[in-house]
Design goal:
Umud Fragment, subunit A, 252 residues, alpha+beta
Amino acid sequence: MPDEKKSSFRDTFESLVVTVILAIFGTTFVIQAFKIPSGSMENTLLIGDHLLVNKFAFAWQFGALRHLGPYRNPQRGDILVFKFPSAEPQEEPGEHLVKRIIGVPGDHIKIVHRQVYRNGTLLNEPYVHHEFPDEARPGDDFPPSDSGFLSGATADWIASLPSHVQNGELVVPADSYFVMGDNRENSWDSRFWGFVPRKLASGQPLLIYWSFETPSGEYLQTSVGDRISQTLDLVVHFFTKTRWLRTFRIVR
């Protein structure tokens, strides 16, 4: 009888260890949970959408790992989760962002009155949302004829932007991507800070596993009181504020 109890305990312990190892492996190489904090991708992705991100899709891997999984290079039109590029080479990349890929290496990009042209062809973008349709905004025309019209751009990007422009078009360099939010007038994207290096790609959103009505700017409210208020709101309004029709929706 003691041996049977010891064997049962050992089996349970081994199963627990294997489960933990698989969970760590899965979150490191396969799947990552991600929450949408801002409205830059509306109406494709809403504030409060909780995503499962496929890290197998095109996460940057080195050496032999690149040949062990179904990795591929990001393509035009893909929604990309990536780490925000740091301005200084010695700095670590910043928080994760999500945008749509508009240009891949070698593409020529030009925006005229909010109409996006890639390699001379006007793009059909049914996913685009214009929050301010009648108001001129920075980035409506890109590259700008004068950097002064690119309000909100980083100083480093304003300085380096001319080196990437040929005949009035932006040329995407090697191992880089030009990305934009679907909510064009409410998105701080490649127009304002530059390209996404290939090595900073983290993955591709798979589906929305849960969506909860969340006010804009909540991610900036990080005090203890704010956290308690947010938790209470979640508990009290879980059923009424959950966007049930978005649950398990495939991200496109």
